[in-house]
Amino acid sequence: MWGGLEATVNRVDDRYLDQLERSGHASRPGDLDLIASLGIRALRYPVLWERVAPNGTSTPSDPAGVAGADWSWTDERLGRLHELGITPIAGLVHHGSGPRHTDLLQPDFPLKLAAYARAVAERYPWVDAYTPVNEPLTTSRFAALYGHWYPHTKDALSWARALLNECKATVLAMRAIREVNPRARLVQTEDMGKTHSTRRLRYQAAFENERRWLTFDLLAGLVHPERPLHAPGEWMGKYLTWLGISIDELAWFQENPCPPDVLGINHYLTSERFLDERPDLYPLHTHGGNGRHRYADVEAVRVRAQGIEGPGALLLETWERYRLPVAVTEAHLFSTREEQLRWLLEVWRGAEAARNAGADVRAMTVWSLLGAYDWNSLVTRDNGYYEPGVFDLRAPEPRPTALAGLMNDLAAGKQPRHPVLTEPGWWRRPRARLVYPPVRSAQPRGPLALRQRRFSMRYGERTMRAAQPVLITGRTGTLGQAFARLCDLRAIVHRVTSRAEMDIGDPASVAAALDALRPWAVVNTAGYVRVDDAEQDRDRCFRENADGPAILAEACAARGIKLLTFSSDLVFDGRKGEPYVESDAPAPLNVYGESKAAAEQRVLAACPDALVARTSAFFGAWDEHNFVTAALRELAAGQRFVAAVDQVVSATYVPDLVHACLDLLLDGERGILHLANGGALSWYDLALQAAQMAGINAERLQGATTDTLGLPAKRPANSALSSERASLLPSIDVALARYLHDLRVSGADWLLPPPAEQRERDVA
């Protein structure tokens, strides 16, 4: 088990986008101790040229510009890894183009990087593993063929020169390193996808499937137009010389081979592509061509009837081609937590299967331990779009997720037993993955292709065993229905109970249901919700909101079952004058708030491992009985709608809440946690903002003070919620935009259609 940090420092125009700064790891050395607790043996770690010597000046005596460089950060971090017994795999350029005095197209880029590599080896002679340039083929495509990153060229010859420069830099860097440390190993990474196609485009798929090996072929000295017919590298050698690369440039790699000691395979669900000559079936942004055919280039997982081959099959294919040690060096999935767990386990089992089939598989790398920022825009913008990893950084300190527990199990050789792992990932569920009409792709020919197909089918099979469910109380309520809906979407086995099936206020009923269903977790969404009626119905309110959760807590604690239950912002009196955090003392103003405060205390006393989610002001597209939907319906119909101007709340979009709660439940979180969309608004301002975003005339929206509304129960003036533990939900602006989109998708005929530009974004 290896680990890795997303460490890209790429350049866009004159701006460097630094993942280490964005994630906070640059100033958080304690991360390394957290990483060590995962049981990993090696860590892909940045010793990046752009960070060590960002402002250096290249001179004949100092081509890398490291005179006056600041090594203090890498001194501290590599030293700590050495103390922790973790082998660093030093990365020198990670999707970058070097400091400002160079770039991927400069002829002297290889010599400059080699000089920097020598400086690193001389400073850290005990470091034995290096990746001088991460993913040369991918980096050269993004920087020189597609123009996303510096130097922003968009032609095939520039791409070829950038790739050759990166590979030559790798050869020279390893030569310089080995002159200092002869033991040094080259761990060369590349995004190893695969292209599938219809029968007509089989020729284009074959070309792209040969091009994907270029990094490894160049380093091994295999690329030359005069190699034997059909030998590895012969086809690409002819293509590169056709582009304008000289035979002498390719011959240099034959004369200076540097085959990797480990071939590092980086693999993502979207790494496998599908080409279809019927572009009209797919969105415009997928359209492309080669001058001979127009076609769509889409994710194979979304259209290919056979599904993806997966990382295990690609590891075996790489081994068959080179007969060199292989490893998975990246395997990240941005999704819900159970899908991240399923992907990690599939990659691990795929690596095991490839090894059992004869491949020399050295390791599987969990990537990225700290998550990643802005890869949804290919790191061309700094929007703060975060994808959690093994640790979630949306907390004051990195918070371990369920992935950390799975890593520990795998590293220790234990059989993972989390209940959600009984179901396959969405990429193995046709109803979940097929966005477009399924197409059966043309199959490669030959005995090796047949063996790989059989292998892919074998290791990708689902292993079924009895799954423990999540038990959800409150079948008819907003939250209960939302949990059931999203558990269906996420393939989390569940059972939803009504009061007749399990009365949470009756200990015998609770015990019977838990013993019969044997859930691994209980999500309690049942309760008394009529805040004003509770003033005259105290006993019933307390039975449902305090006694019931306490009974559930005692029963769950006795059986080792996880428990999630809900509380409210109404446990506070609103006098703080700013958003409340988890450690603020409750001081309810009404009976409903008293019942929720009592529930918090009793639940955590009976079951300290329970998770209590305080939340506020639900709204969603699946239930019309909420404030935002009611306001929009009335205003859209030209009716008057009255809302309080002197009550400030934090509104909560139900899908955001449910997704976050399910992730937290899988992570094993406990205690009280505030979950609401970011921002604080009065009820009036919430209705106004929703109407404005929906394009609804808000002239008939009327503000009123709370004392004029005649509500029996007192309300706090400001019960807005914030969190000192984790901020997991997006802003209210983002939540409202998605809510309106979901309303339109659900067919709300009273809602105006969005502007044309919004419709185009929705389609994309």
Write up this protein.
The protein has 25 helices and 30 strands. By secondary structure, the protein is of the alpha/beta class. The protein folds into 3 domains: 2-211 and 257-268 and 309-421, TIM Barrel, CATH 3.20.20; 221-256, no CATH class; 470-763, Rossmann fold (3-Layer(aba) Sandwich), CATH 3.40.50. An 8-stranded parallel β-barrel has the order 1-4-5-6-7-9-13-14, surrounded by 6 helices. Helix 12 (311-322) packs parallel to helix 13 (337-356), helix 18 packs parallel to helix 19 (538-559) and helix 19 (538-559) runs parallel beside helix 20. The chain starts with a strand and ends with a helix.
Question: What's the quick description here?
Answer:
The chain is α/β, with parallel strands linked by helices and 764 residues long.
Based on the model shown, name its key terms.
764 residues, 3 domains, 8-stranded parallel beta barrel, 6-stranded parallel β-sheet, 25 helices, 38% helix
Structural domain count: 3
Largest sheet: 8 strands, parallel, barrel
Q: What percentage of residues falls in helices of 4 or more residues?
A: 25-40%
Q: Which whole number gives the mean pLDDT?
A: 94
Helix/strand-derived category reads: alpha/beta
Q: Outline the low-pLDDT stretches.
A: none
Strand proportion, as a percent range, falls in 15-25%
Measure the end-to-end span: 38 Å
Radius of gyration from the alpha-carbon trace, in angstroms:
29 Å
Number of helices: 25
The side-by-side strand order for the widest beta sheet comes to 1-4-5-6-7-9-13-14
Label the overall shape: elongated
List how many beta strands DSSP finds.
30
